[in-house]
């Protein structure tokens, strides 16, 4: 009995891997999509109502107009049954995942450029005094106490410097 269950799990994993490869998204992203899909498949029927698409995309940080949403639903629900299976859902979500990855890469490039701008000598770090000035410029209402706390948190090792990884973590959160 356990062998059959394991075979079924392996078959599902293989299908997910193949679909992920076809959509050019990672295994982790496929697992996340499957978990998301399953959480909306309340009746465990293997389908979710297409009217959930707006809510799902909203949760993923993509607010769409009614017209955009209507176009997507018309495209996804080809058979007009008002439902979509996981494969249809994955095709839809993959578009938004790729977009998100590109946005993240662009943000990281901009942050790296900003870091290099402040790291004029190319030492791979900036001083906490310089960081203090940068943070004051970003928010002129920040109190000295809040600034001290932020610097202390960012420069956890107390070195008096902030390297690229610490800077990135601070800027991204």
From TrEMBL:
Matching InterPro entries: CALM/Myosin/TropC-like (IPR050230), EF-hand-dom_pair (IPR011992), EF_Hand_1_Ca_BS (IPR018247), EF_hand_dom (IPR002048)
Domain EF-hand: 28-63, 64-99, 106-141, 142-173
Entry GO CC: myosin II complex
UniProt xrefs under Pfam families: EF-hand_7
PROSITE patterns, per the entry: EF_HAND_1 (PS00018), EF_HAND_2 (PS50222)
Record Gene3D superfamilies: EF-hand
Source superkingdom: Eukaryota
SUPFAM superfamilies with a match to the protein in the record: EF-hand
Keywords carried by this UniProt record: Calcium, Repeat
A single MF term (Gene Ontology): calcium ion binding
Record's protein name: EF-hand domain pair
């Amino acid at each position: 009995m356990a062998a059959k269950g394991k075979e079924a799990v392996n078959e599902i994993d293989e299908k997910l891997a193949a679909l992920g490869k076809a959509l050019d998204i990672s295994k982790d992203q496929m697992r996340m999509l499957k978990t998301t899909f399953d959480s909306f498949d309340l009746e465990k029927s293997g389908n979710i109502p297409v009217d959930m698409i707006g809510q799902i995309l909203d949760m993923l940080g993509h607010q769409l107009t009614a017209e955009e949403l209507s176009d997507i639903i018309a495209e996804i629900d080809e058979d007009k049954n008002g439902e979509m299976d996981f494969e249809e859902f994955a095709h839809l979500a993959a578009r938004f995942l790729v977009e998100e990855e590109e946005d993240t890469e662009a943000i990281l490039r901009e942050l790296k450029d900003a870091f290099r701008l402040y790291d004029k000598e190319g030492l791979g770090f900036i001083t906490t005094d310089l960081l203090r000035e940068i943070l004051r410029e970003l928010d002129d209402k920040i109190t000295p106490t809040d600034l001290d706390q932020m610097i202390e948190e960012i420069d956890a090792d107390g070195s008096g410097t902030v390297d690229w990884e610490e800077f990135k973590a601070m800027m991204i959160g």
